[in-house]
Design brief:
The complex is a heterodimer of chains A (about 240) and B (about 290).
Chain A: E1 2-10, H1 16-23, E2 28-37, E3 40-48, H2 51-61, E4 79-88, E5 91-99, H3 107-114, E6 120-126, E7 129-136, H4 142-152, E8 157-166, H5 182-193, H6 205-212, H7 216-236, H8 239-244
Chain B: E1 9-10, H1 12-16, H2 19-23, E2 29-35, E3 49-53, H3 69-78, E4 86-90, H4 92-107, E5 112-116, H5 119-125, E6 152-153, H6 155-164, E7 167-170, H7 174-178, E8 201-202, H8 218-227, E9 233-237, H9 243-254, E10 259-263, H10 266-270
Parallel strand pairs in B: 1-5, 2-3, 2-4, 4-5, 6-10, 7-8, 7-9, 9-10
Helix pairs in contact in B: 4-5, 4-9
The chains are: A alpha+beta (about 240), B alpha/beta (about 290).
Organism (chain B): Halococcus thailandensis JCM 13552
GO molecular function (chain B): thiosulfate-cyanide sulfurtransferase activity
Keywords (chain B): Repeat, Transferase
Chain lengths: ~240, ~290
Amino acid sequence: MREFTFTIEYERGTDPIMDAFIDDPDAVARSLDGFVTEERFWRIERIAGSPATLDRIEDIRFDDDTCGESLTERDCEATRYHDVLERGEGRLVIYTYLDGISACESVHTLSGKHLPPGLVFETLRSENRHSWRVLMRSDAKVGVLYDELAARLREGLSFRMGHLRDADGWQRDSLASVSVAAEQRAALQAAVEDGYYETPRETTLDELADELDVPRSTLSYRLRQAESQLARRYVADDERDRWLR
Amino acid sequence: MTDHATDVLVPPEWVAARLDEFVADDPAARLLEVDLDPSSYETGHIPGATKLDWKEDLQDSTAFDIPSVADFEALLGEIGITPESTVVVYGDMMNWFAGYGYWLLSYYGHADVRLLDGGRDGWLAEGYELTDEVPEFSPRSYTGASPNESIRVDRAEVETAMERGTSLVDVRTPEEYRGEVLAPPGWNEGVQRGGHIPGAVNVPWSQVVDADGRFKSEETIREIYREAGIDEEVVVYCRIGERSALTWFVLHELLGYESVRNYYGSWVEWGNTVGAPIERGRRAGIRGE
């Protein structure tokens, strides 16, 4: 199995879905997309963000006049089917099935044109970036895909090359899509970056609190809340749990 | 109809109306399909079209150059083309490699060569007939090919051109132009250094075709190159000189620029040349900032 990764960057106002992520920098979405044939694909996208962002994305997805997939000037003419699989505090999971996509110009269709059937896509949206990991049985024609993608993006979109190599790993950081309040995320990020979770600890709560300019008690509370959320989601996401309960 | 007042660019209906001539053994009219993905031909092609494989037929991998005069003449003769034939070239991916086929025929002085507007996809989009029948034409003798050096440059001439202030057009992707991508994935066209020839402006080859693969109107294309600050004297290049051939077609054949030359060695040669100056970073300047 080979993997090809790249990121497409969007200027504000060039894609309705990406605008939602640009406006809410705390929002992230991860998707798993399966490409059935050159005509159709499905996708499950888990989005974490504020309720307003989730409402906005849901509205765009269910508005049949909005394409939300095309990279070029030409809008997709597919038949779209969307369904909400999960809607909880700060998270939304949408199932999507698009049929009749061959005239559309999305990553899916361009990949389908040049790569062998059986493609799997993992994607991550955050702020103005939509990152793609394309898993394929053979990369014989990936050069053509690269040239077409990079050359045909509409104005306001730009291409950033990742890598092309043997595929390794699967959804290693699925926890990243767990919804944690923005201030808790900031606390966690600072704690990790400063080595608070190293053994022995490389910083203290007092130092971190100073850096973040919050009272020690507040920081401590935020970290505990975030840790408990992550721990509970992690256990709930465990494979056995998903299949046996 | 095409939006261009030239007979070298022909619309699908022009070809469709002449299919009888293209399938006939009479060498007066021939169709050539040159695809980026040569297997496209096998999935169906325009009746009478002969496939040319850009890697096998249109380059000499040993000399790392275009085919020699002798090879070129032998190739055309074998597939039933004479110097008097009207040859229409088309291909996939917006004629990317068909444009190179057109340039090569022009370089060797073929008198009547045309490009099908929209290429393979344009033909398909119009719903015209496809076949999987591979034509077999009687071989002909093709002689008199002779290189037209006024449409090609080598590295030394590019250096001279730079000194003279000739416009340089880099048709690669903005990432390659800026030097961020050294080895394009999936292509054996990597170089030691990233960037572009100093002074070159970046006008990616795809900017001059619209979503359905047809060339934009003459006025629109002219404006794109005017904004990019391109003069009448131009050198075009890409990675290996193939996509730039399509830009050569646009500038020389559609817009009628006085002097347009294709740098066949392109970035693969320049980027790997010891001591050749390069420039990097600079934002892709289609708007001619």
